[in-house]
Amino acid sequence: MQGILADGLERKFGPVTAVDHLSLEVERGEVLGLLGPNGAGKTTTVRMLACLISPTGGSANVCGFEITREPSKVRDMVGILTENPCLYERLTAYENMQFFAEAYGVSPREERKGRIRELLEFFGLWNRRADKVAYFSKGMKQKLAIARALVHKPPALLLDEPTAGLDPESAKEVRDMITQLSCGEKRAILLCTHRLEDAEKLCSRMMIVNKGRCIASGTPELLQRKLVGAPVLEVVLKFGSTDTADAVRRLASVRSLEADGPRLVMVVDEPDSATPEIVDSIVRAGGRILSVNSLRPSMEEIYLRLIEEAGL
Amino acid sequence: MIRLLKVKLVFQKDWLEIRRNWQVLFPLLFVPIVFALVLPAVAVVPTLSIPSHVPSDGLLAVMKALPAHVRDEIVGMTGQQAVAYMMLLYLFAPVFLIIPIIVSSVIASDSFAGEKERKTIEALLATSLSDGEMLLGKILVSFVPAVAVTTVAFIIYSAVADYMTLGLFNGRFLLPNTIWLSLIFGLAPAVAFADIGLTVIISARVKGVREAQQISALLLVPLFAAVFGQASGTIFFDPLLITTLTALVVAFDIIILAASIRVFGRNHILARLS
To answer: Is the CB of residue A68 less than 8 Å from the CB of residue A58?
Structure first.
């Protein structure tokens, strides 16, 4: 079964173009991160893919169903976590789950009850099932909203800021769950987030959008290369020596080297394969290594630089 | 195709929310009780100050504007009887229409604009429920209580009015009569439906429950005009007028339902939220 496929998706609100010919693909078992500043068009993209609003141009398929021609089938295939938890606060956690399970057509009754229990137990909310959602903490509401998105076992998930408002422990639990849903259960997941930590840890590919347009996409490594070129490796020695620097400079995998006392900074092609070779040559030359660091920019730096380049 | 089980699901969910919301529940209980208990008292208590031997001829002179058939009804009554009769059976009839308007307005505002205000609408629209199922469920959750509360208030009103006037009219029950039955089971449901339709349209354009309630309460304006029109003798709520008004309001209901269906669509609702 296919995942999510959008081709030239466009949405205009009057004179404003919220999403401008956006194309993306999320395969089953993959997490695609959609990153961008506020107003970049992330939420509008999610709403179009969930058949909440129609596109004004382009097309998209979710699990093989076209969003404008078969919206009802698309909704059955999609679990959505919106910006807000969107929970009925006067209803209990169980009543919320029951309503959405029935609305999504989870049947028969025994299966519905079992699924609700399974999800509430997984999120640690089973003991609070009879409490009104109004009395829940922000984190508990977020967990319940994710549970609701999963109640009908959708093969595609659209998650808008899933760890927003969660404490570090709960955020990790949610990240682990997303990993399990993509790797273990092979769901196609589109993750909209501002939290670059989430994007870095969860996404196999990322797409950075600005003013409705894609400004960069690819694996985190590809984005890093696109922005800063070849990776840079830093080796800090106990004592600096010309012999050690020369030994490293002779290696084919090292494109250039700059020695600053005990600190060697070098440009390499493939840090993963080059690092053992570099370490070995330093040790053979009598150098004593204190640390080896990759000087790749963080996702945060990449994101900020791309947004800056795009002209915000 | 509309699946009735899904309509019931939306109805039950909204009803559960309403039952737990005192801001909605209070007017639902308070307004009908006030109308059912206070209005008969207002009609009967002042008549006690009128000497029982005074004939209604003097009043008839004042009530020249009354239609002939109504004047015939009160010929031969004492002043006490005529005042109680006119107030209980005629004057309060249009006033009673306030109940379905208030009840439907309060519930429909909470059900439609409330979903937007509490930011729950997006998750609801993301489900497999069709626009029609959601709209019908939400219309019914406003319509059924509006009709039920009006009916219960009418039963209490009739019982209290009959009890208070039993002695005055020598054991004769005044209510229910044709006018009131056609009003409660004809005009009142039609008016409630019109108010719900208006609230759906208004809710699509406003952001909060209060705003929706205030604007939808505008339907009270023609109603008050009718009350004053009746009090001044310009119009009169007799069976013919009630039937004519019911037909007109039903026609309005059809138009407003069509407009509501257009307004209550996923694309329309979320485009306005964006």
So the answer is: no
pLDDT digits (tens, 9 = 90+) for A58-86: 999 999 999 999 999 999 999 999 888 89
Element spanning B56, H or E: none
CB-nearest partner of B127 from A13, A75, A84: A75
Could A53 and B271 be called an inter-chain contact, meaning their C-beta atoms sit closer than 8 Å? yes
The greatest distance separating any two alpha carbons of chain A, rounded to the nearest whole angstrom, comes to 76
**Of B144, B110, B145, B138, whose CA–CA distance to B261 is shortest?**
B138
The 10 Å Cβ neighbour count of residue B214 is 14
Question: Which phi and psi (to 5°) does residue A257 adopt?
Answer: -145, 140
* Contact in structure between B39 and B92 (CB atoms under 8 Å): yes
Mean pLDDT score across all residues of chain A: 88
Closest-CA residue of chain A to B12: A99
| Termini Cα distance of chain A | 38
Spatial CB neighbours of A274, under 8 Å, sequence gap ≥ 6: A233, A251, A253, A254, A268
Domains and CATH numbers, chain A: 4-224 (3.40.50.300), 232-295 (3.30.70.100)
**SS3 (DSSP) at B236:** coil
- Strand-strand pairing, A263-268 and A188-193: unpaired
Domain residue spans of chain B: 4-273
Tokens of A59: 């097309």
Contact (CB<8Å) A90/B130 = no
Distance (Å) of CA A11 to CA A17, A36, A42, A78, B94: 6, 17, 11, 20, 49
The token duo for A191 is 């993750």
Q: Which residues 6+ apart lie within 8 Å of A186 measured at CB?
A: A28, A29
Query: Helix, strand, or coil here: B126?
Result: coil
What was the ipTM of the complex prediction? 0.85
pLDDT per residue over B61-120, tens digit each? Answer: 556 667 777 778 877 888 788 888 888 888 888 888 999 999 999 999 988 888 988 989
> What is the structure's pLDDT at B50?
66
- Give the DSSP letter of residue B219: G
CB A22 within 8 A of CB A195: no
The residue of chain B with its CA nearest to that of A17 is: B274
Per the model's pLDDT, the better-predicted residue between A253 and B184 turns out to be B184
Neighbouring CB atoms inside 10 A of A164's CB total: 19
> Residue B145 pLDDT > 90, yes or no?
yes
Helices A271-284, A242-249: axis angle to 10 degrees equals 140
